[in-house]
Amino acid sequence: MRWELCSRTHGRLARIVAALGFGHVDPARIFCVRGYGSTSEAWARIWGLPALWQQVLGIGPAYVVEIIEPEFGRLPEAEQDRILIHELLHIPRTFSGAIRPHRTPTFQITRRSVERYYQRYLTAVAGPADGSVAPEERAARTERAVDAHTAGSPVPAAAHRRRSPRGRRERALR
Hints:
- It is a single chain.
- By secondary structure, the chain is α+β, with helices and mostly antiparallel strands.
- It has one domain (about 1-165).
- About 45% of the residues lie in helices and about 15% in strands.
- The protein is globular, with a radius of gyration of 17 Å.
């Protein structure tokens, strides 16, 4: 395994945070890396810095979003955005370094919830409808957002596990 910092993914992540109004997320304390050589079935994953490590090292909460290459890079941009949103949803409102699980009594990270956030993101990217953005620019933004959304992906929306034919066969044999 090897990793490298990825400023491009960090920029995308920061834009998503701003567009969705995730005020509890501090992009300066999120680090993005591209991982190569992983045998994981994930396209991306998020790592938190537990409170014990924060205290021992004398640093604040931090997160690492790891993009698994080359799988993540093969996905359409819209699907990549959904995956980044999915990973951001694992950050609790306390921004404590902990990781929010997929299901809690009050919140669930599902394909449906990620899709709702993704639609909010597309609306935010397209801009307000109050006339503060020129109609031509708004139309162009909307078209770009819709194009990204409808780029079509053979994979389920916001799934963070890649599907492999071998994996399906192995599961069928169990």
